[in-house]
Records
---
Amino acid sequence: MTMFYFSGTGNSKYIAELFCKNMNASCHSIEEKADFTELIKSEEIIGFCYPVYMSRVPKIMREFVLARMELLKDKKIIFFCTQWLMSGDGARAFTDLFPRNYIEVIYAEHFFMPDNVNNVFFLPVKNGKSIEKYIPKSERKMQKVCRNIEVGKIKKRGFNVFSRFLGLFQGVFMSALEKKANNTIKVTPDCNNCGVCVKICPMDNLVFENEKITHKHNCTMCYRCMNKCPKKAITAVFHGKVKKQYKGI
């Protein structure tokens, strides 16, 4: 069994590694320099873990899967998505990438994790003791998930009619925000051109150009740059002032 994950600021990495520790499975970030073709070919069960914003699979994960579509045919698949509030069908949304009956979904689950959206005033970012409660809750839930998988119990979170309806509504809204993110990244004069954002962007979207940071219209909305910028000088989609940065679980 192999688990592939994308993690913008650490939540999905934590869940993926927790699962692989419990199941003695291999764990790989899709940002690694690895032979993903061989890794997929060699396993019967493939897991995917990713952050979901309003029932939308991140662009970087969608592109990773679509580039390896043929390798995944008839594989048994596990989906985990991390979310702060409620995604509706965040795990089920992954199946929209595949033709009908192309894969066999054996488990799908949502994990509630701390918020990392730090430039919207009504979405609170917390760190330290304020987020410690997520750790035991995640561990208990993961133990239950692993027991279910070991005995062949199938659970598909987000596949019911209500979840799919909520996901449809959210997904349309999120698609519009994703398009906006590709065109509205802003860098304030506080930027000191340290290059941190350029180095850590998973999409290679941020570049130095004419002695300033600019972008190539290819944002996956992971919030990594906004939470790592030492000057809190970069924002995407929403452009409220970044007051607090998420440090990770």
---
Amino acid sequence: MISETRTKFTSWLKSPRNAVIAGVSALAIVSVGTMSAFALTGTPTDTKTAQNSVTTAESTENLQNTASDSQNAAPATTAPTETAPSTTNTTTHTNTAPATTPQAPAAPVAPTYSDSYPAEWKNGCDAIDTWGMTTCQSSSYAAFKVNEAFGNMPKWGYTGQGDVSHWVANANAANIPVGTTPKLHSVGISGNFSAFVEAVNNDGTIDVSYYNWQYNKAFGYKTSIPASTYSNYIYFGN
């Protein structure tokens, strides 16, 4: 029954007029279906809209892929910019020496010389010392200082020539140099008084130590006195 009906419909459709009617009928059926779908959902079925939706979905996926690629891409490296130091010094430093108040030069301090004369002699004056001199006299003190400085002093007192007034002659006889210019540790002679030269200063003055100045039988010293204070100097160390 079905085959017979299909055969009849096929023969009928071969007619051009019938083919047109069939196409119109099919189109009407499709339109009715579309209108029915719109009535049920309220949204028209548009083929172009569907294509645009597919395109939009593809664009969204492409944007997501682009963002993902951007995150995975290595961060761009920006070379630091070096700024050359400025050669212009905008700050001017002025070195100003602090004001100083000139001070008066300190007064020179006179040296101090100690008494090294043996205690038994200074406490027992008018005895005879090692060189035949009378203790606490200028001759005995000078003989002691010469022996202290050089380790040797002639025993002039035992010859009767121990008085200082004989010392220049005694030195000449013993080939001990004598002069008028003071030297360190020489003995200055003035009349019958002697003094031991402790220092010769840059200005030509001398420092001397002695015993029995003005017959006091005691130790004393003077600083920065003229070299001409003594007429002769005996150089026992030379």
